[in-house]
Amino acid sequence: MSEHQGVSRMSDGTVTTVSSNGVYSFTKPNRASITLLTGLGVEGDVHAGVTVKHRSRVAQDPTQPNLRQVHLIHGELFDEVAEAGFEVAPGDLGENVTTRGVDLLALPTGALLHLGEEAVVEITGLRNPCAQIDGFSHGLLKQVVGRGPEGELVRKAGIMGIVRTGGEVRPGDPIRVELPAGPHRPLERV
Question: What mean pLDDT is predicted for residues 72-94?
Answer without folding.
Answer: 97
